[in-house]
Design a protein that fits this description.
The chain contains 5 helices and 18 strands. The chain is an alpha/beta fold. It has a single domain, classed as 4-Layer Sandwich (Purple Acid Phosphatase, chain A, domain 2). It holds the Pfam family Metallophos.
Length: 284
């Protein structure tokens, strides 16, 4: 009887160690490059390649600045015209072997080389650490940070919605800013939760925050998505009416340096021109 219990305990220990090893290797693996194609640009415009990064969460052991520098090399290899970063640059998880200040954590982002620049919003962990330090460090890294503001980038107007999770988002102000600037509206948000309130005039919203669940178990699914909508906006492409939402799984981790069933990713979104209608106005 005792021998049987010892064998069972040993099997459980080996199984647990195996799962932890797989989960850590998944968390530190190179990201999957996911692709989406949307024909929303005005006719005659050249296609644009927009790369979405999110949830970098710089901290040891899984995301030291050296790993972020490697991920920047992968990002540049996609040859994006524009890089959008949906927040959570740093981590404050208690399981971290080392935490980093904003300056060393974001310094590798200075090596990003998109033709039209890098635009970002902050996430909840950034605000919890230091909003001011985030602004200073990202400016040094050449990242344009938006908080309920908008900026014109080529034919696009990028609206940067501040973090909804910490109740800093002001969607009406952001939409009004986008209308003033003009251009094809693209909304960048840390959390996907504001999506239902986004007007139909904004055809595309990009977000992160959910990590696609980070830990997704068989049958059970995601342990948590940190979204008020559960799995509805937890991951990937969601289309509702004339609007499209793309939610990235992110690059780093929260709470634990582990991932199961939700690999790190980047989204390369190709924006193509709408087809011109033979009867005059542009048509989707």
């Amino acid at each position: 009887m005792k021998r049987g219990l010892r064998i069972a305990a040993l099997v459980l220990i080996v199984a647990a160690l195996t799962i932890l090893t797989v989960a850590y290797r998944t968390a530190t693996a190179d990201p999957v490059i996911r692709e989406a194609h949307l024909s929303i640009l005005p006719p005659g415009e050249r296609p644009l390649h927009v790369l979405l990064l999110s949830d970098i969460h710089v901290a040891g052991p899984d995301m030291p600045p050296e790993r972020l520098a490697h991920l920047v090399t992968i990002a540049n290899a996609q040859r994006p015209d524009l890089v959008l970063i949906a927040g959570d640059f740093v981590s404050d998880k208690r399981t971290a072997t080392r935490l980093y200040a904003f300056d060393p954590a974001t310094r590798p982002l200075a090596a990003l080389r998109p033709r039209l620049g890098v635009v970002a919003v902050l996430g909840n962990h950034d605000h919890w650490r230091s909003t001011r330090q985030a602004h200073v460090a990202l400016a040094k890294a050449g990242v344009r940070l938006l908080d309920n503001q908008a900026i014109r980038v080529g034919p696009l107007v990028i609206g940067g919605l501040d973090d909804a999770f910490t109740r800093r988002a002001n969607l009406p102000a952001t939409i009004a800013a986008m209308d003033r600037v003009g251009g094809l509206p693209i909304l960048l948000s840390h959390s996907p939760d504001p999506f239902p309130a986004v007007p139909a005039s904004v055809p595309l919203m990009l977000a992160g925050h959910t990590h696609c669940g980070q830990i997704r178990l068989p049958i059970v699914g995601a342990v948590a998505t940190m979204s008020a909508y559960g799995d509805r906006y937890a991951c990937g492409i969601v289309r509702e009416g004339d609007k499209t939402l793309i939610v990235g799984a992110g690059l780093g981790t929260s709470l634990l340096p582990l991932r199961l069933g939700a690999v790190p990713d980047m989204w390369l979104v190709t924006l193509a021109p709408r087809r011109a209608s033979p009867r005059g106005p542009a048509a989707l």
